[in-house]
Amino acid sequence: MNTLTILGLETSCDETAAAVVRGYPPGPGEILSNVVFSQTEAHAPYGGVVPEIASRAHLEILDGLIEKALGDAGIFWNEIDAIAATAGPGLIGGVMVGLTTAKALALASGKPLVAVNHLAGHALTARLTDGVDFPFLLLLVSGGHCQLLAAADVGKYRLYGTTMDDAVGEAFDKTAKILGLPYPGGPNVESHAARGNPRAYPLPRPLLGRAGTDFSFSGLKTAVRQLVTQNQVNIEDACASFQAAAIDILRDRTAHALTRFREEFAHAARPTLVVAGGVAANAAIGSALAKLADQHGFEIRVPPPRYCTDNAAMIAWAGLERFALGERDPLDFSPKARWPLDASGDNRHSGERQQGA
Ligand code: KG4
Ligand code: ZN
Predict the structure, then answer these.
(1) Residue whose CA is closest, atom 7 of ligand 1?
(2) Each residue of 61-91: pLDDT tens digit?
(3) Beta carbon of 277 within 6 Å of any ligand 1 atom
(4) What is the pTM of this model?
(5) Selection from 49-53, 84-88, 230-234 with the highest mean pLDDT
(6) pLDDT of residue 356
(7) What are phi and psi of 204, to 5 degrees?
(8) Is pLDDT at 327 greater than 60 in this prediction?
(9) Distance of CA 199 from the midpoint of ligand 2 (Å)
(10) Reduced to 3 states, what is the DSSP secondary structure of residue 339?
(11) What is the β-pairing status of strands 15-23 and 4-10?
(12) Is 88 touching ligand 1 by the criterion CB < 6 Å?
């Protein structure tokens, strides 16, 4: 079996990224380079991602990042087997920049194009970093998504549950904004929470104790807003109380999904819970879920934070997985603002990001 070397591009939100990854399924793969330019500063004055600013910034910087990714990897262009780019879901202007660049490179070089679902990138990261075997239970927690899925194979996902309103990362970001903490909110809320009292303020935990695997975070966010408008709050205690509520919600819904996965994939010898997406970088969430997985007899895999937040190594790897199966895409492949992993499932919050989210 020959290893494959893939160039990956990611431009679906506010990170512009290029990476070169080498390996073969099931992984782990070798990350030869991983260049990420975060546009945080450009969006910070607006308290959220502004789509027009994002696409212009991707356009300005992507060429240079690709050169750097190839240079850092220390490889020649002729060693690249295929070019993978995020083709959705995400902010459509940004997706178009990355996908069109990948098409141009493919056309000029004669190398194949693989159009990658950004969510599959997050989903398959644990194979890139840890070589996790299928099937596994995936908790995908990011700024645009909060889903539980069974990952049965490359491209085969069964949706267990999704959020009925906000994504969990969005709840972190909005809480930060309400509390006057700088964008991006997640890491700031986490660091303040570490110094606060999680029992200082009673906050609601929507759907807790109810059957099923769906999520809801908007009631929690609204309660934080009310708390702040009606009281003089201690920021650290508010962050700790919010994060404790978010953890309780994630733990409760994931527990139901672990039970369902056990029933549906009874043959899985060592069932694994994979936590992916930007919110997986949160250490308090990670350790709560590790304890839960252990109680249910599951292994847990949480990729290192730099591969949990948006990056191109995960896109290169997801492209590699499909390319290894003989899959590739035509140069007229259309970018998609919405693109659920499980097209048959109910995907209420499955793609488009909102401005300021
Ligand atoms: O996966 P990602 O980089 O982009 C999306 O595809 O959404 O996730 C970004 C989200 C943001 O909402 C950010 O606030 C959140 O992940 N996030 C965190 C942490 N680091 C990033 N949330 C909580 N705690 C963190 N440490
Ligand atoms: Zn993402």
Answers:
(1) 143
(2) 999 999 999 999 999 999 999 999 999 999 9
(3) yes
(4) 0.92
(5) 84-88
(6) 29
(7) -70, 155
(8) yes
(9) 31
(10) coil
(11) antiparallel
(12) no
Confirm if 212 and 161 have CB atoms less than 8 A apart. yes
What's the whole-number mean pLDDT along residues 30-55? 83
Quote the CA–CA distance of 132 and 273 in Å, as a whole number.
10
Q: Which atom of ligand 1 is nearest to the CA of 357?
A: 12
Residue 349: CB atoms within 10 A of its CB come to 18
Q: Determine the distance separating the centroid of ligand 2 and the alpha carbon of 232, expressed in angstroms.
A: 34
Task: For the chain, report the end-to-end CA distance as a whole number of angstroms.
Answer: 44
Instruction: Indicate whether residue 29 lines ligand 1 (CB < 6 A).
Output: no
Q: Which ligand gives the minimal distance to the CA of 353?
A: 1
281 lines ligand 1 (CB under 6 A): yes
Round to whole Å and give the CA distance between 89 and 83.
18
Centroid of ligand 1 to alpha carbon of 298 (angstroms): 24
Nearest CA to ligand 1 atom 14: 186
What pLDDT shows up at residue 354?
36
- Per-chain mean pLDDT for the chain: 92
Do β-strands 272-276 and 136-141 pair in parallel, antiparallel, or remain unpaired?
A: parallel
Residue nearest to atom 23 of ligand 1 (CA): 186
Pairing outcome for strands 146-153 and 156-162: antiparallel
Of the CA atoms within 13 Å of residue 197, those in its CB half-sphere come to 6
| Ligand that comes closest to the CA of residue 171 | 1
Q: What angle do CA 321, 313, 34 make, to 5 degrees?
A: 150
CA-to-CA dists, residue 356 to 47, 59, 71, angstroms: 6, 21, 35
Place of tokens 């409760």: 252
With beta carbons less than 8 A apart as the criterion, state whether 317 and 121 touch: yes
Is the pLDDT confidence value at 355 over 60?
Answer: no
Tokens encoding 206: 């929507």
Q: Which ligand has the nearest atom to the CA of 307?
A: 1
The mean pLDDT of 314-338, rounded to a whole number, is 97
pLDDT computed for residue 1 by the predictor: 67
The verdict on whether omega for the bond into residue 26 sits within 30 degrees of 0, i.e. cis, is yes
Residue 357, pLDDT score: 27
